[in-house]
């Protein structure tokens, strides 16, 4: 047997063990529990041995975060694969699926969506969850005449940031293989997409951490009403 090949397979297997153990610690105890020392203890190895695989805890956590995002996107893709190829239907199904996942994977949600994102936030649009969300949004843009803000209502102080974000959106949407009129993605639409995500993310975050200002006996109804409001504001209806 080739020693190089065997060592490569052993290294890959150990890497899988490390990430599997890190994920278990995350799910059971939360992001703070994911430390190199704790992982080494669970695996019965020394903490310095982990540095052969990851340069730091931050390095490991970033890989773990990527694994969580990939699993989330795969689950959402499976959900919408059962639906008709209609952008609005799929987009709002993704919104509901995101909430459902967040409420049943609170520790993973905390790691990915409620922790500091670092300096390269825009590049995360190209990650699996960002791609599946934006692909559905692209289909909505292509298939519907939406009610969107005009460029004139976009605050002047936000235009430079939104222009940068607009370029990232275009790149990701084009990579998704969706065809849509590029002129539809003006600053007004870009502004709208930021607001859409902020309201969705804010609502889900409040619910995950139990921070609603009052208790609701039927939070599903509140969430569905919020989605219906979002849809109505841009000229869509959802069932």
From TrEMBL:
Q: Report keywords, A-Z.
A: DNA-binding, Transcription, Transcription regulation
Provide the HTH tetR-type domain boundaries. Answer: 12-72
Gene3D superfamilies, per this entry? Tetracycline Repressor, domain 2
Per the database entry, where does the chain bind DNA? 35-54
Q: Report if keyword Transcription regulation is assigned.
A: yes
Residues in the signal sequence: none
Q: Name one Pfam family in it.
A: TetR_C_33
UniProt-listed PROSITE patterns: HTH_TETR_2
PANTHER family from the xrefs? HTH-TYPE TRANSCRIPTIONAL REGULATOR RUTR (PTHR30055), HTH-TYPE TRANSCRIPTIONAL REGULATOR RV1816 (PTHR30055:SF243)
Name the record gives this protein: TetR family transcriptional regulator
